């Protein structure tokens, strides 16, 4: 059973990384878009293109946490207690 959960957890992490490119790329383009006046139009295009995938990508993180909690509760307990302050 743990092997199957590990496979699903791996798929979730890969999906987050692949689909997270939209978030990471949009952040980079927003950074180099320019000042307030010159960068207004590029930022508007960035926001419009990112809107459909923004929250959907964060759903993969929740999926991964649930898989970790379901299949490896001791590992999740160790991670959350160790990373209590940063989280």
Shape: elongated
Q: What can be said about the biggest beta sheet? A: none
How would you classify the helix and strand content by structural class? mainly alpha
Share of helical residues? over 70%
Distance between the termini: 29 Å
Number of strands: 0
Round the mean pLDDT to the nearest integer and report it: 85
* Beta-strand fraction estimate: under 5%
Number of helices: 5
Order of helices and strands: HHHHH
Uncertain stretches: none
Radius of gyration, in angstroms, nearest whole number:
17 Å
Could you say how many structural domains there are in total? 1
Task: Give me some keywords for this one.
mainly alpha, single chain
Please provide a written account of the structure:
The chain is an all-alpha fold and 87 residues long. It has one domain. Helix content is 78%, strand content 0%. The protein contains five helices and no strands. It has helices at 2-19, 21-31, 40-50, 54-71, 73-82. Helix 1 packs antiparallel against helix 4 (54-71) and helix 4 crosses helix 5. It is elongated, with a radius of gyration of 17 Å. 3% of the residues are buried.
List the helices and strands and how they pair.
Blueprint (H helix, E strand, L loop, with lengths): L1 H18 L1 H11 L8 H11 L3 H18 L1 H10 L5
Helix pairs in contact: 1-4, 2-3, 4-5
Concise overview:
The protein contains 5 helices and no strands. With 87 residues, it is mainly alpha-helical. The protein has one domain (2-82).
